[in-house]
Protein backbone atom coordinates (compact mmCIF):
# COMPACT_ATOMS: atom_id res chain seq x y z
CA UNK A 1 0.00 0.00 0.00
CA UNK A 2 2.78 2.45 0.91
CA UNK A 3 4.56 1.72 -2.37
CA UNK A 4 1.36 2.28 -4.34
CA UNK A 5 0.68 5.59 -2.57
CA UNK A 6 4.27 6.68 -3.26
CA UNK A 7 3.89 5.91 -6.96
CA UNK A 8 0.63 7.88 -7.15
CA UNK A 9 2.19 10.89 -5.39
CA UNK A 10 5.27 10.76 -7.64
CA UNK A 11 3.09 10.49 -10.76
CA UNK A 12 0.89 13.40 -9.67
CA UNK A 13 3.89 15.63 -8.97
CA UNK A 14 5.48 14.64 -12.29
CA UNK A 15 2.33 15.55 -14.20
CA UNK A 16 2.11 18.85 -12.28
CA UNK A 17 5.66 19.74 -13.31
CA UNK A 18 5.09 18.71 -16.94
CA UNK A 19 1.90 20.81 -17.02
CA UNK A 20 4.15 23.87 -17.35
CA UNK A 21 4.71 22.80 -20.98
CA UNK A 22 1.11 23.92 -21.60
CA UNK A 23 1.21 27.10 -19.54
CA UNK A 24 2.01 28.37 -16.07
CA UNK A 25 -0.62 27.18 -13.62
CA UNK A 26 -1.25 26.71 -9.85
CA UNK A 27 -0.50 22.96 -10.01
CA UNK A 28 2.97 23.61 -11.40
CA UNK A 29 3.62 26.31 -8.79
CA UNK A 30 2.53 23.96 -6.00
CA UNK A 31 4.90 21.21 -7.18
CA UNK A 32 7.71 23.72 -7.68
CA UNK A 33 7.36 25.22 -4.19
CA UNK A 34 7.05 21.76 -2.66
CA UNK A 35 10.26 20.64 -4.35
CA UNK A 36 12.16 23.75 -3.25
CA UNK A 37 10.89 23.39 0.33
CA UNK A 38 11.77 19.68 0.57
CA UNK A 39 15.18 20.30 -0.99
CA UNK A 40 15.92 23.11 1.48
CA UNK A 41 14.86 20.94 4.42
CA UNK A 42 16.93 18.01 3.16
CA UNK A 43 20.03 20.17 2.73
CA UNK A 44 19.51 21.61 6.23
CA UNK A 45 19.26 18.13 7.77
CA UNK A 46 22.25 16.93 5.77
CA UNK A 47 24.32 19.91 6.88
CA UNK A 48 23.42 19.29 10.51
CA UNK A 49 24.21 15.57 10.53
CA UNK A 50 27.30 15.67 8.26
CA UNK A 51 28.90 19.01 9.14
CA UNK A 52 27.61 20.91 12.18
CA UNK A 53 27.12 18.03 14.63
CA UNK A 54 30.39 16.10 14.02
CA UNK A 55 32.57 19.19 13.51
CA UNK A 56 31.06 21.64 16.03
CA UNK A 57 28.55 20.48 18.63
CA UNK A 58 30.04 17.07 19.47
CA UNK A 59 33.63 18.39 20.02
CA UNK A 60 32.31 21.32 22.07
CA UNK A 61 30.11 19.20 24.33
CA UNK A 62 32.94 16.71 24.71
CA UNK A 63 35.01 19.46 26.36
CA UNK A 64 37.67 19.78 23.67
CA UNK A 65 38.44 22.19 20.84
CA UNK A 66 37.05 25.22 22.69
CA UNK A 67 38.26 27.45 19.88
CA UNK A 68 35.22 26.21 17.89
CA UNK A 69 33.17 28.72 19.91
CA UNK A 70 34.48 31.41 17.54
CA UNK A 71 33.01 29.92 14.32
CA UNK A 72 29.86 29.03 16.28
CA UNK A 73 29.40 32.69 17.24
CA UNK A 74 29.99 33.78 13.65
CA UNK A 75 27.39 31.25 12.50
CA UNK A 76 24.81 32.53 14.97
CA UNK A 77 25.50 36.13 13.92
CA UNK A 78 24.39 35.25 10.38
CA UNK A 79 20.83 35.06 11.70
CA UNK A 80 21.03 38.63 12.98
CA UNK A 81 19.95 39.73 9.49
CA UNK A 82 16.40 38.86 10.53
CA UNK A 83 16.54 41.56 13.25
CA UNK A 84 16.81 44.97 11.64
CA UNK A 85 18.40 46.76 14.61
CA UNK A 86 21.40 44.40 14.78
CA UNK A 87 21.49 43.15 11.19
CA UNK A 88 24.90 44.82 10.72
CA UNK A 89 26.47 42.10 12.89
CA UNK A 90 25.96 39.56 10.10
CA UNK A 91 28.45 41.51 7.97
CA UNK A 92 31.27 40.30 10.22
CA UNK A 93 30.29 36.69 9.55
CA UNK A 94 29.95 37.29 5.82
CA UNK A 95 33.35 39.00 5.72
CA UNK A 96 34.95 36.02 7.48
CA UNK A 97 33.26 33.53 5.15
CA UNK A 98 34.22 35.40 1.99
CA UNK A 99 37.79 36.00 3.14
CA UNK A 100 38.45 32.43 4.25
CA UNK A 101 36.78 30.94 1.18
CA UNK A 102 38.74 33.24 -1.14
CA UNK A 103 42.02 32.20 0.49
CA UNK A 104 41.22 28.51 0.21
CA UNK A 105 39.77 28.80 -3.28
CA UNK A 106 42.84 30.53 -4.73
CA UNK A 107 45.10 27.56 -4.03
CA UNK A 108 42.40 25.01 -4.92
CA UNK A 109 41.58 26.60 -8.26
CA UNK A 110 45.24 27.17 -9.05
CA UNK A 111 45.93 23.49 -8.45
CA UNK A 112 42.85 22.18 -10.26
CA UNK A 113 42.44 24.65 -13.13
CA UNK A 114 46.04 25.63 -13.84
CA UNK A 115 48.59 23.11 -12.60
CA UNK A 116 46.54 20.01 -13.48
CA UNK A 117 45.61 21.34 -16.93
CA UNK A 118 49.21 22.38 -17.57
CA UNK A 119 50.37 18.90 -16.57
CA UNK A 120 47.72 17.28 -18.77
CA UNK A 121 48.94 19.26 -21.80
CA UNK A 122 52.55 18.02 -21.47
CA UNK A 123 52.07 14.95 -23.64
CA UNK A 124 54.36 12.99 -25.96
CA UNK A 125 53.27 13.78 -29.49
CA UNK A 126 53.29 10.11 -30.44
CA UNK A 127 53.09 7.07 -28.18
CA UNK A 128 55.36 4.14 -29.05
CA UNK A 129 52.74 1.68 -27.83
CA UNK A 130 50.03 3.21 -30.03
CA UNK A 131 52.36 3.21 -33.04
CA UNK A 132 53.06 -0.49 -32.45
CA UNK A 133 49.33 -1.20 -32.28
CA UNK A 134 48.77 0.71 -35.53
CA UNK A 135 51.50 -1.29 -37.26
CA UNK A 136 49.86 -4.53 -36.14
CA UNK A 137 46.28 -3.45 -36.86
CA UNK A 138 46.23 -0.50 -39.28
CA UNK A 139 42.90 1.29 -39.45
CA UNK A 140 41.05 4.52 -38.73
CA UNK A 141 40.51 3.79 -35.02
CA UNK A 142 44.12 2.90 -34.29
CA UNK A 143 45.29 5.85 -36.41
CA UNK A 144 43.17 8.21 -34.29
CA UNK A 145 44.70 6.71 -31.15
CA UNK A 146 48.20 7.35 -32.55
CA UNK A 147 47.44 11.00 -33.40
CA UNK A 148 45.32 11.85 -30.32
CA UNK A 149 48.14 13.54 -28.38
CA UNK A 150 49.39 15.34 -31.51
CA UNK A 151 45.93 16.74 -32.27
CA UNK A 152 45.47 17.74 -28.61
CA UNK A 153 48.74 19.69 -28.46
CA UNK A 154 48.18 21.38 -31.85
CA UNK A 155 44.63 22.33 -30.84
CA UNK A 156 45.85 23.73 -27.51
CA UNK A 157 48.46 25.89 -29.24
CA UNK A 158 45.87 27.17 -31.73
CA UNK A 159 43.50 28.14 -28.91
CA UNK A 160 46.31 29.91 -27.06
CA UNK A 161 47.09 31.84 -30.25
CA UNK A 162 43.46 33.02 -30.34
CA UNK A 163 43.82 34.44 -26.82
CA UNK A 164 47.10 36.20 -27.69
CA UNK A 165 45.81 39.72 -28.37
CA UNK A 166 49.18 41.51 -28.51
CA UNK A 167 49.51 40.56 -32.18
CA UNK A 168 46.86 41.32 -34.78
CA UNK A 169 45.06 38.23 -36.07
CA UNK A 170 45.99 38.58 -39.73
CA UNK A 171 47.72 36.36 -42.26
CA UNK A 172 48.96 32.98 -41.09
CA UNK A 173 48.63 34.05 -37.45
CA UNK A 174 44.98 34.91 -38.06
CA UNK A 175 44.40 31.54 -39.76
CA UNK A 176 45.73 29.73 -36.71
CA UNK A 177 43.55 31.94 -34.46
CA UNK A 178 40.47 31.10 -36.54
CA UNK A 179 41.30 27.42 -36.23
CA UNK A 180 41.49 27.89 -32.46
CA UNK A 181 38.12 29.67 -32.55
CA UNK A 182 36.62 26.70 -34.37
CA UNK A 183 37.96 24.33 -31.73
CA UNK A 184 36.47 26.51 -28.99
CA UNK A 185 33.10 26.47 -30.73
CA UNK A 186 33.30 22.67 -31.01
CA UNK A 187 34.03 22.45 -27.28
CA UNK A 188 31.17 24.78 -26.37
CA UNK A 189 28.84 22.89 -28.70
CA UNK A 190 29.81 19.55 -27.15
CA UNK A 191 29.17 20.95 -23.66
CA UNK A 192 25.79 22.33 -24.71
CA UNK A 193 24.89 19.06 -26.42
CA UNK A 194 25.81 17.11 -23.29
CA UNK A 195 23.57 19.38 -21.22
CA UNK A 196 20.66 18.89 -23.62
CA UNK A 197 21.19 15.12 -23.62
CA UNK A 198 21.15 15.12 -19.81
CA UNK A 199 17.84 17.01 -19.72
CA UNK A 200 16.34 14.71 -22.35
CA UNK A 201 17.49 11.67 -20.36
CA UNK A 202 15.69 13.06 -17.29
CA UNK A 203 12.53 13.64 -19.37
CA UNK A 204 12.68 10.09 -20.78
CA UNK A 205 13.09 8.72 -17.26
CA UNK A 206 9.96 10.53 -16.05
CA UNK A 207 7.91 9.47 -19.09
CA UNK A 208 9.07 5.88 -18.66
CA UNK A 209 8.04 6.06 -15.00
CA UNK A 210 4.55 7.25 -15.94
CA UNK A 211 4.09 4.60 -18.64
CA UNK A 212 5.67 1.75 -16.69
CA UNK A 213 5.30 2.08 -12.92
CA UNK A 214 2.16 4.22 -12.96
CA UNK A 215 0.07 3.17 -15.98
CA UNK A 216 1.70 -0.27 -16.52
CA UNK A 217 1.59 0.23 -20.28
CA UNK A 218 5.21 -0.81 -20.75
What does this structure look like?
The two termini are 21 Å apart. Helix content is 78%, strand content 0%. Helix 5 runs antiparallel to helix 6 and helix 6 packs across helix 7. The protein has a domain of 95 residues. With 218 residues, it is mainly alpha-helical.
Structural features:
mainly alpha; 218 residues; 7 helices
Biggest sheet descriptor: none
Listing every helix as H and every strand as E from the N terminus to the C terminus, the arrangement reads HHHHHHH
**Considering DSSP H and I runs of 4 or more, what fraction of the residues is helical?**
over 70%
Strand content bin? under 5%
SS-based structural class? mainly alpha
Number of helices: 7
Terminus-to-terminus distance:
21 Å
Quaternary state of this entry equals single chain
What Rg, in angstroms, do the CA atoms define? 28 Å
What does the average pLDDT come to?
88
Could you say which overall geometry the principal axes of the C-alpha atoms support? extended
Regions with little confidence, pLDDT below 50 for 5+ residues: none
